[in-house]
Amino acid sequence: MAVALEKSAPLAGVRKVRRRTVVAAILVAWLLLFVVLRGRQTLTLAAADLTGLHRWFNDVNDSIGADRNSNPLFLYFFNEIRLVIDNVVTFIQHLISQPSAGRPLPQIGWLGVVGIVGYVSWAVGNWRVALLAVAGFTFLGLQGLWQESMDTLSLTLSAVFVALLFAIPLGVWAGLSDRVNRIVTPFLDFMQTMPTFVYLAPLTLFFLIGGASATIATVIYAAPPAIRITAHAIRSVPETTVEAAESLGATRGQALLKVLLPMSKRTVVMGVNQSIMAALAMVTIAALIDAPGLGKTVVQALQSLDVGTAFNAGLAIVVMAIVLDRVTTAASARAETARGSKNRFLKWRRPLLGAGAVAAAVLVYLSHTYLWAAEFPGDGGTGSSIASAADTATGWAQDNLSGLTNAFRDGITNGLLNPFQSLLTDSPWWLVGAVLIALGAVLGGWRAGVTTAVCLVLLVGTGLWSDAMTTLASTLVATVLVMLLGIVLGVWMGRSPLVDRLLRPTLDAAQVMPPFVYLVPFLALFGATRFTAIVAAIVYAAPVAIKIIADGVRAVPETTVEAATSAGCNTWQIITKVQLPMSRGALTLATNQGLIYVLSMVVVGGLVGAGALGYDVVAGFSQGQLYGKGLAAGLAIVLLGVMFDRITQAAARRASA
To answer: 482 and 536 in contact (C-beta within 8 Å)?
Structure first.
């Protein structure tokens, strides 16, 4: 056995060296051929030009619009789905955000909503979470954004309700059945790989723009986390526990209801938490297809470069995200906390909850009956002050920091982004394709190479090769910077428990915020440029990469580190020769997640001048003649995401083997 291990280690080292050598040879050959063939066969397409595929998409859209009320498929399927979703959304909007039944205000006014939120937060969590929720929702009103916030909440609740109706049962089924789990896993991987943008365009083709399409897109985006985490929760219950229940005569249904689900409760609620966060992120982006709420305010402000208004609305989104996250997180931990608690007031919890329910009902009645309790008081002066302060800070930054920020922007743009973008966009398309296929095969294996080849052929077919390469350049540059930041902070966190305790809450909070929010501060610093989107993408993707790398470094056995220390290795040698090499599986996984997050954010950056595929999608929503091009851009984004995901996942498996 020892001899076999000694033989296998050098072979693994040889394979690694050979792989690096092959990658280096591919890149050198690419650079040499680029010098000779630069500017030839680049498949460039002007912003206003359309291909045959784009025109065909436009024709399909027109014909669907003409046949929407006569085609049986629409009359009895798509239109019915749209009607049901519209009714669900409208019902919740009439309850808390929009006038209804001849009333000038919704059925439940601001005081009733705050009362319900406070009571529910207390019931599922604790009094601290309830105070946070009440303060957060009151702050939304003080910002002058009560109705917009309630519209966002209505769409989020509608989407999560519909998503959980089938996500939880499907997750339980996947947890009980290996076959179902194998079937749904590739679909879940694919759905979570796609950036949020790409859900929107196809759905407007069938469901038109508006709340229904936004809700359906949000349902599709929010369901995978609940399905995956529920399945994991069911599978994590010890088999011995289930066998013990069955040996006592429990049927399969009784084992599910009395053992599996109760023991999985905390993890399932965590899945609900992730679905709510995903839904909130999607609802804000769905403003691009005319979804009401805070997202629409942010989009309009970004398009007009109104940083103050965008900051105020973005802050409201962050507040809502924090409240929803804290409430659902507290709900997942409450049962365990209650069991371990010796609080003497615990026996009074039920009577107090009953009294709280009565108080909440009184507040609902008051908000339904009296104007002062229905319409949020004040004129939103707090929001105006926040917007004014943001505008003042933006002006100060532009006047005093422009030299520093412009130098930083120009250094990265001219020193890294432009050369790499030129290499991708000015090389012949077939040369770039051959290089990417070769790299995919070397890094991920022949299956990854085949997947890359298929994606690239389809990418050429979209007619947006040059725009796709521009997006690819921005994505890869941002990912490199994410990984540099991730390695520095991840290693620091992995080696120091104190640093981990200090940084991890900030990273967790950063992952709660929807992508839109990250654009606002960098728009103030760098203006409407593609660099704004890249920096926002780095900040958006870095938390997940840092946490994965930190966990990977921490997983390196202490005995290995101690052995390296006793052999005379210094800190730098331990990091570079022991901890990072032994964490290469985590590094590759961090690269995978960083790429997907960056791609999503770079595309959203089309709103602030990032151009390329993101701009094509946004233009497709706003200009009817470019709808087909926007749809093709969405397909191109999917292809890039699938290609990135397949290569990096395969590389991660090879690194861990």
So the answer is: no
Could you give the CA distance from residue 435 to residue 472 in angstroms, rounded to a whole number? 14
8-state DSSP, 513: S
- Asked if residues 298 and 284 have their Cβ atoms less than 8 Å apart, the reply is yes
Structure tokens at 320: 């809502």
List for the chain the helix, strand, coil content (%; round to 5).
85, 0, 15
172: confidence class by pLDDT, cuts 50, 70, 90: confident
What is the rounded CA–CA span in Å between residue 594 and residue 482? Answer: 7
Other Cβ atoms within 10 Å of 289 Cβ, number: 21
CA–CA gap between residue 260 and residue 241 (Å, rounded):
9
- As given in the structure block, the two tokens for residue 651 are 């590389």
And the tokens for 424?
A: 């991708």
Checking if the pLDDT of 404 tops 80, the result is yes
pLDDT, tens digit, 9 for 90 and up, residues 53-109:
999 988 888 888 787 778 788 878 888 888 888 888 889 999 998 888 778 889 999
Inter-axis angle of helices 584-604 and 612-622, nearest 10? 40
In contact, 163 and 223? CB cutoff 8 Å: yes
pLDDT for 466-484, tens place per residue?
A: 999 998 998 889 999 999 9
Residue 514, token pair as written in the block: 């929807």
Helix (H, G, I), strand (E, B) or coil at 269: helix
Distance between CA atoms of residues 158 and 155, nearest Å: 5
* Helix extents (H) in 341-376: 349-369, 371-374
Residue closest to 528 by CA, chosen among 607, 415, 619: 607
Q: Return all residues near 372 (Cβ < 8 A) that are at least 6 apart.
A: none
Q: What is the pLDDT of residue 16?
A: 52
Number of C-beta neighbours around residue 105 at 10 A: 17
Task: Read off the tokens for 225.
Answer: 């986390």
Are the C-beta atoms of 614 and 197 separated by less than 8 Å?
yes
Residue 148 CB partners (closer than 8 Å, separation 6+): 292, 293, 294, 296, 297, 313, 316
Closest by CA to 471, choosing from 524, 522, 542, 537, is 537
For residues 611-634, average pLDDT: 82
Q: Which residues contact 52 (CB under 8 A, 6 or more apart)?
A: 463
Name which of 614, 469, 440 is nearest 42 in CA terms.
469
How far is the first Cα of the chain from the last one, in angstroms, to the nearest whole number? 18
Q: What angle in degrees, to the nearest 10, is found between the helix axes of 110-124 and 127-142?
A: 160
Rounded to whole angstroms, the Cα distance separating 316 from 148 reads 10
Would residue 71 be called left, alpha or beta, if left means φ above 0 and alpha means ψ between -120 and 50 degrees? beta
Tokens of 39: 């500017």
Q: Which of 201, 53, 183, 189 is nearest to 641 (CA)?
A: 189
Query: Model pTM greater than 0.85?
Result: no
Q: What's the confidence (pLDDT) of residue 7?
A: 43
Distance CA 297, CA 594 (A): 28
> C-alpha angle 264/269/272, rounded to 5°?
130
User: Alpha-carbon distance 47 to 44, whole Å?
Assistant: 10
Separation between Cα atoms, residue 342 and residue 185, nearest integer Å: 42
Residue 575, φ and ψ in degrees, nearest 5: -65, -50
Q: Tell me, what's the pLDDT at 9?
A: 43
User: What residues have CB less than 8 Å from 190, skipping those under 6 apart?
Assistant: 642
Q: Sorting pLDDT into bands at 50, 70 and 90, what band is 17?
A: low
Largest CA distance in the chain: 85
